[in-house]
Amino acid sequence: MSKYAIGIDFGTLSARALVVDVSDGTELYSAVSEYEHAVIDEYLPTGRKLPPDWALQHPRDYLISMKEAIKGAIEGSGVDPKDIIAAGVDFTSSTLIPVLRDGTPLCFLPEYENEPLAYATLWKHHGAQKYASLMTEHAMVRGDEFLLRYGGKISSEWSMPKIWQVLEEAPEIYAKCNRFAEAGDWIVLQLTGNITHNACMAGYKYFWSKRDGYPENEFYTQLDERLDLVMERKVGGDISPLGSLAGYVTEYAAKEYGLPEGIAVCVSNIDAHASVPAAGVLEDGLMVMIMGTSTGHLLLSKKDAFIPGVCGCVDGGIIPGFNSYEAGQSCVGDHFDWFVHNCVPESYEIEAREKGVNLHELLTQKAEKQRPGESGLLALDWWNGNRSVLVDADLTGLMLGMTLQTKPEDIYRALIEATAYGTRKIIENYEEHGAKVSTIIASGGVAKKNPMLMQIYADVCQREIKIVKTNQAPALGSAIYACVAAGKERGGYDDIYEAVLKMGGVNSTVYRPDLENSRIYDELYKQYVILHDLFGRGANDVMKVLKGIKAR
């Protein structure tokens, strides 16, 4: 009799549940539920206005969407819930929730519903940039070796700058909360009643390593004496490796969220990182590119090297036995959505309706007729800051070469090309410092839906690009880890390697570089690098000056 697992993927805008066959990873059904409040970046639900560069969420949305997605996935799959053996959770990270001892988020309390930092701070919350910069400078002065694992810079997207921001700007929230919970760990708590800390989030977002643990307490007290014992008092707990058992679905959770009572639940994971096993990757030199609102570039390597500008290098951070490097771009799908929602004339909307396509499809149809360089445009892909290799959330976008003849499709293609140049910069940075990238494997909705985009990436990066077979890589990856947590005795696997080989993999689609296009893109990329270094490495700080004036 077949056994099944369910992966629950929490993205930036929605939660998705996927039911898969444990034997081979066949996907039976997935259901998605969008968050009611989406990204809270202008006003709290109470109406309070937020500062620039903030990105919050309401944790109640996670629970409602999880319930709806699980119900839809199980009903749509038609499987007998008794045959579901395990559930896994991944979450976009670092998304941080200040909670009471019982796990109640502070924003659930009436007295804190108008306090912004009582809500979940989403991964792309950049309000903590000041604190990230101070932490980086402090670690450099002290000569802390842990900084080398993170490319020499601390990002405002990670956990500790956000925690320090709460302490400084909302000290009552800091004092009131029992702990700051990663949203993925918080979801596991709702399902099992157990508090867990997974090695992936601890390694990439809290500066933890298997060899050295967390940074010493003095690192934090020298920054602010109120941070004394911050890890023990506000984070705490043992670190669990990926694929380990967090607990079992409780009676309450079964009734509330629709999962079968008593099934295994594995420790949570970061959404992008969960995509790697879904791609079937178990070898050195394959880079998995997870393309969504942002893009993560995950590389398994036997090398243990200092690579500037990466988001982290964690031993066993994805697959045991490998150093797992993470780099990324903060704005990819968000990039294209911004343009479609703000910069496309009504005539294009009418044309799209007449053709029965959406605006992305219409712009792609128009843009794919162009040759590289034909528009005369060149862009920097920093609409939401630069994650790698500059690690600077205060950088902004740039479009160069526009004239009175520039059309929307020209700009749309230039934005796509900019994200491809950003990926090439990340690849070159990996290789310049000893980590080989032989092949790219792409996953995510963007990779599946837009062949033109993927061909541009192949041409710019001059590498073959393969596509993950699943449409829901993070959810499938979470289901794979869940099968390992369940173990063979319950119908799963005792080994992540066997689970990946049976359940992950790529499809037959391969994008290969067009040599003529690559030659032209080489010329354009040289100009991209000039702009990248001019505006990104301090030679011209006009972007930061403009942001400062805007903030005033």
Could you please describe the fold and organization of this structure?
- It is a single chain.
- This protein has 20 helices and 20 strands.
- It has 552 residues and is of the alpha/beta class.
- Strands 1, 2, 3, 5, 9, 10 and 11 form a 7-stranded mixed β-sheet that branches. Strands 14-15-13-12-18-19-20 form a 7-stranded mixed β-sheet, with helices on both faces.
- β1 (4-10) and β2 form a beta hairpin.
Q: Could you give the topology of this structure?
A:
Blueprint: E1 4-10, E2 14-21, E3 27-34, E4 56-57, H1 59-77, E5 84-91, E6 96-99, E7 120-121, H2 129-142, H3 159-169, H4 171-176, E8 179-182, H5 183-192, H6 199-205, H7 217-223, H8 230-235, E9 245-248, H9 251-257, E10 264-266, E11 269-270, H10 271-278, E12 286-291, E13 295-301, E14 312-315, E15 323-329, H11 333-342, H12 346-355, H13 359-367, E16 378-380, E17 398-400, H14 408-432, E18 439-443, H15 445-449, H16 451-461, E19 465-468, H17 473-486, H18 496-503, E20 506-511, H19 515-536, H20 542-551
Helix pairs in contact: 2-3, 10-17, 13-14, 14-16, 16-19, 17-18
Give a brief rundown of this model.
This protein is an alpha/beta fold and 552 residues long. 40% of the residues lie in helices and 18% in strands. The strands form five sheets. Strands 1, 2, 3, 5, 9, 10 and 11 form a seven-stranded mixed sheet that branches. The chain has a seven-stranded mixed sheet with strand order 14-15-13-12-18-19-20, sandwiched between helices. Strands 4-7 form a two-stranded antiparallel ribbon.
The structure class reads alpha/beta
Largest sheet: 7 strands, mixed
Report the portion of residues in β strands: 15-25%
- Cα distance, first to last residue? 65 Å
